Amino acid sequence: MKPPFTHRDLKTIQEGNRRNADVMDLLREVKRLRELVALAHSVLKKVPMRDLKMSTEDMMTMFDAMAAEPAVQEYIRMQKKREEMEFRRRQAQEGIQAQAHRSGPESSQ
């Protein structure tokens, strides 16, 4: 069995087939399904296992299969990147505020 297509693989196919309407329609459908899998994975991560009406083994099998999907891995990577950027932005803002607070009273005297 061939490995699943990555985002880059799909972009390469798109670049070579922009004039083929059928290929472009299929790529749009693949994109939609990849987004659905990534969303389902992110929602399922938040649901306590005990609240689901299926066996733990079945749930873990499905969850592992979803986690192995390139779309989900890319979603997780982008989510971590967004969180890291937000953390750095907050650190920079706090640093600016702390610096302004330290220099504020001294400069007024």
Give a summary of the structure in a few sentences:
This protein is mainly α and 109 residues long. It is built from 4 helices and no strands.
Would you give an account of this structure?
The structure is a single chain. Helix content is 78%, strand content 0%. The protein is built from 4 helices and no strands. Helix 2 (21-44) packs across helix 4 (70-108). The longest helix is centred in the last third of the chain and has 39 residues, at 70-108.
- How far apart lie the N and C ends? 74 Å
Total beta strands = 0
Query: What does the overall shape look like?
Result: flat
- What class do helices, strands and sheet pairing give? mainly alpha
Q: Report strand %.
A: under 5%
How many strands, which pairing sense, and closed or not: the largest β-sheet? none
Q: What integer is the average pLDDT?
A: 85
Provide a count of the helices: 4
Rg over CA atoms, rounded to whole Å, is 22 Å
Classify the helix fraction into a percent range. Answer: over 70%
The H/E string reads HHHH
Q: Segments where pLDDT lies below 50 for 5+ residues?
A: none
List the helices and strands and how they pair.
Layout: H1 7-16, H2 21-44, H3 56-67, H4 70-108
Helix pairs in contact: 2-4
Features of the shown structure:
109 residues, mainly alpha, flat
